Amino acid sequence: MNTVIENRYDFVLFFDVKDGNPNGDPDARNLPRVDPETGHGLVTDVCLKRKVRNFVHLAHCSSAGNDIFIKERAVLNNMIGDAHEQKGVKCKDKGEKTDAARQFMCDRYFDVRTFGAVMSTGKNAGQVRGPVQLTFARSVDPVLPMDHSITRMAVTTEAEADKQQGDNRTMGRKFTIPYALYRCHGFISAPLAAQTGFGKEDLELFWTALINMFEHDRSAARGQMSVRKLVVFKHASKLGNAPSHQLFDMVTAQAVDQPARSFGQYQIAVPSQADMPRGVTVLEKA
Predict the structure, then answer these.
(1) C-alpha span between 269 and 252 (Å, rounded)
(2) Does the pLDDT of residue 155 top 60, yes or no?
(3) Which terminus in the chain has less CB density within 10 A, N or C?
(4) Domain assignment of residue 94, yes or no
């Protein structure tokens, strides 16, 4: 039974990239995202949520209760309309239809229960504020994006072939980061989980998806990406027993030498249970 969670959680996620582009910026020729003031690499929360959604979709094949609302080639207003058709028939007014459709969307779609959604773009199913939220991931150290020339031994059109007199070469660019370790912070709210129905089974599925999100997301552009460590702080209460920033500050990562080119060159310090504030339990999921 998917019992609603009764505890607040905060977590720190470390993942790395080697010879790849973890999150290209379409407004900057798909270059890796970088903080221009510090040189630290960035990966958006939207990017990480996409990978969690993809893993859940792959693992559960759109089964009821674990279907994905924001997915490739989806027409969102059609799915919102379906919620109205299935749950709004017996409702007397628009407000009741909206509430019923909203509940249907939470019951059916894992990502709506987890991350929330705006569902007022067509037939109104309201808005859902998700209990699970992520920050941008930021590299522990500054990164140096590399720009590589690549060659394709083919052309697209006959005109290109004639122009090259049969040489048939097409030049291109590829952007990579030699190596970077990224750190992301996350938050799980028990009161918001009660509103969406996010339960203990959802929580375990979320941890599994977060740890394995890169395992089935391989591509030539992304190089080698791996989740390296997941540190979870479980609070004894719904509202929490310590500020999240205080807990995050207790987890540190430092390179033993530079330039770092592997995870083995980093030391990650995780607090012991004896160091934790009262009412907070520290767990290492990966």
Answers:
(1) 5
(2) yes
(3) N
(4) yes
